[in-house]
Amino acid sequence: MEGGPVKPNKTEFTECWRTSLKTPYIMRLALSAGIGGLLFGYDTGVISGALLYIRDEYSTVEKHTWLQETIVSMAVAGAIVGAAFGGWINDKFGRKKSILLADILFFAGAVVMAAAVGPWMIILGRILVGLGVGMASMTAPLYISEASPARIRGALVSANGLLITGGQFLAYLINLAFTRAPGTWRWMLGAAGVPAVVQFVLMWSLPESPRWLYSQNKIEESREILAKIYPADEAEKELEALQSSIEAEKADAKSIGEGFLAKVQSAFSNKIVRRGLYAGIAVQVAQQFVGINTVMYYSPTIVQFAGFASNKTAIALSLITSGLNALGSIISMAFVDRYGRRKLMLISMISIITCLIALAGVFYGAAARAPSISNFESSHFGGNSTCPSYITASNPSSWNCMTCLKASSDCAFCANGANEYHPGACLAVNDGSKSACRADNRTWYTQGCPSNIGILAVLLLGLYIICYSPGMGTVPWIVNSEIYPLKYRGIGGGIAAVSNWISNLIVSQSFLSLTHALGSAGTFLLFAAISAVTGTAIFFLVPETKGLTFEEVEKMLEKGFKPSVCGNDPDPDKKLDGTV
Fold it and tell me: What's the whole-model pTM score?
């Protein structure tokens, strides 16, 4: 999912608290910029619940899975573009103006979606917020890191990561709060405009990053800001450090070439960087292809696949998965420096694959035990209400609820009034049939079927999140902050991040189509198989970087990484021999 390199420790958190009390201005800078992380999380998470009500309002969205996928994934497509142009805007106009522009995009997107008169307008709004997400994903942590004292930088940047998962959790709470409000999804999507306005006002009164100002030869302005962040005896030293760092950065830029394509060519022609990119891209692609964003973007829909037809119930149960994701981010901070990056990812991948196989089994069992279709029940609502595909079927007596739902997007299942697990009706999807079904005190199903084992799917989704978040959720970003030689960190991390967003887009744009073609069980089994492949790639390509300096990582990659079958951490005495 989403985030950045976060690597604080307990001492850093203690120092962060002490320093913030002494100099509140630092926390003001960090939290104001951190609202960008909150917006990032909110706008990626809110669509999961809003989509349920968008489907109810627009029959074209209900009937076409590709349209649902487009509404969800256009924010990811916008984020790819936003991240690509965000780097140039950051360097050209500064971090502060980049954040202000992201706020304008967030607000405009929220207003467009809230006022949408059709699906096309929702898609346009999603593209706008996606552009904001792409810019915020890289600018917010960059601003925080450049406006923070080095000794507490990791803790403050990690707070941005927590705000991302916190924003996703807030999105589910807002979704749940507006389930009974007139306009439902419009309020859910439009609410993102409020924190965007708050951040715009706060950032307007804050200064530019001192590092960017110095790089633009605005030395006095940079000195004034550093004087507010550091004690008097440290401010001048930090200014000297900035000078050395920026000069070294400019020298590195000359050595690897100007322009994006020249930098990419230089990176892949360097054996050490190339091996680092194999590892960095592998973990970023693996992070998405375990299917995490199917849960983040579609979890209420998945809960409905498990047999919970109520939108409100689906959103409420999905709130658990979002909360566990935020909790997992905290767990990661406690264990990643103790047990190492590689071990945590491999354990996470094995656990994820197990959960995906178990989910496939539960959904297969639910489909096999789905209530049958009764001709008597179907005709109860009148011949015109029965689904045409059922009427023309060659062997309708063999149909069950899942057969009905898969037959056509024009078919829905109306549960038996006495017992939802008894034979029910296969009806045409229209307002008349839906109203007649509900008026008869029956439950209307369009995504999944009644199942007495559906709660197992929800529990397994929660377990899946617990297995994902502390390992594959956060560690890939840490690996990418450590695996490249210093002068290639920017281009290496950028290439890996783009691979992450593209993988995210592929997964989010294809999930519902896959469930339609393969069924829920087949889709989760496919993710398990892909996870096994990407997990194998991690085993062979990704070395342990815990406790190693950049120089030691370089020497290890130069000699070539050789994985151990046991997967143990590197022996301190063998750090440089390339073995694990």
Answer: 0.80
